[in-house]
Amino acid sequence: MNRRNKSNMNTNLPKTEQGIVLEILAKTFDLPPEKIPGDARIKEDLGADSLTVIEITMALEEHFHATIADERLEEVKTVEELCEALAETLFPDARPR
């Protein structure tokens, strides 16, 4: 896993919300948030199975009071892509980078 830290994520999700995503992932995988790089693959690198992905999604949706479209979630492979999917849900008018 590349050790790129959260401040280097190329996403429209603000840093505060990125931190919340990383905290949820850290709790799920029992890792320090700073050890979860944006390019970490959720299944392959972090070891999530399909149930874990559902749990992460539910935790994010509950925290942010939003629903990420299933079609969009199917495209998510990395932490950065998860942040971007959340950004698209929370801030639909934001321009992609």
Characteristics of this structure?
Non-ribosomal Peptide Synthetase Peptidyl Carrier Protein, Chain A, 97 residues, 49% helix, mainly alpha, disordered N terminus
Give the helix/strand layout.
Blueprint: H1 15-29, H2 50-64, H3 70-75, H4 79-90
Portion in beta strands: under 5%
| CA-CA gap between termini | 24 Å
CATH 4th-level superfamily: ACP-like
Q: Tell me, what's the shape?
A: globular
Strand element count: 0
Structural class: mainly alpha
In short:
The protein is an all-alpha fold and 97 residues long.
Word description of this protein:
The protein has helices at 15-29, 50-64, 70-75, 79-90. The chain is an all-alpha fold. Helix 1 packs antiparallel against helix 2. Mean pLDDT is 90; it is low at 1-7.
